[in-house]
Amino acid sequence: KQILDADEFTVIEKKTGKVRTIRLNPQLQQHIKECYEHINPIGINAPILISQKGTIFTVQRINIILKEVKKKYRFKNFSCHSLRKTFGRQVYNMNSDNAELALVKLMELFNHSSVAITKRYLGLRQEEILQTYDCLSF
Predict the structure, then answer these.
(1) ∠ CA 42-49-68, rounded to 5°
(2) Residue 89: pLDDT above 80?
(3) Beta carbons of 103 and 115 less than 8 angstroms apart
(4) Could you tell me which residues are beta bridge partners of residue 21?
(5) Which DSSP symbol is given to 122?
(6) pTM exceeds 0.85 for this model
(7) How many Å is the Cα radius of gyration of the chain?
(8) Which pLDDT score, from 0 to 100, does residue 63 have?
(9) Which of 9, 123, 129, 137 makes a 20 to 30 Å CA pair with 20?
């Protein structure tokens, strides 16, 4: 899908069939443009994630490549899915002044049925429990 010079784009989730619009902020737009210039594909609509054989990488193949990177560099907890969780944690941490609103937005974005599920997904529930110990003084 063409996203060069786009402010937003729409995808249809294969798992749920739901339509999702994703907005690209100016910083991300600039990064996409720089990546495009570096990759220098053969045409504006040419795919950019292609194998040495000239075939387009599938999501499954990209997952395999990420697993190989994880093994090679001995990363822990690293996958496409962990990138999604990292995104959620970044959004939550960057909005600490209005954390509850950030959780509601993330709940919608992740298509969770409740804020409690989003909190558990991001690991916030366990973190909150552990922070209880920080309050103790002796």
Answers:
(1) 150
(2) yes
(3) yes
(4) 10
(5) T
(6) no
(7) 19
(8) 85
(9) 123
Task: Kindly state the tokens that stand for 116.
Answer: 């409690």
Pairing type for strands 19-23 and 8-12 reads antiparallel
Q: pLDDT confidence of 95, banded at 50, 70, 90?
A: very high
Round to whole Å and give the CA distance between 102 and 76: 27
Cα–Cα nearest to 4, from 37, 39, 25, 32: 32
Three-state DSSP at 29 gives helix
Q: What is the mean pLDDT of the chain?
A: 87
pLDDT attached to residue 124 = 87
Q: What is the DSSP secondary structure assignment for residue 98, as one 8-state letter? A: G
* C-alpha distance from residue 126 to each of 38, 41, 116, 129, 130 (Å): 42, 45, 12, 5, 6
Counting residues of the chain whose pLDDT is more than 90, the rounded percentage is: 38
Burial 6-20 (b: 16+ CB within 10 A, else e): eeeeeeeeeeeeeee
**Residue 131 backbone phi and psi in degrees, to 5:** -70, -20
Work out the number of other CB atoms within 10 angstroms of the CB of residue 106.
21
- pLDDT of 98 reads 94
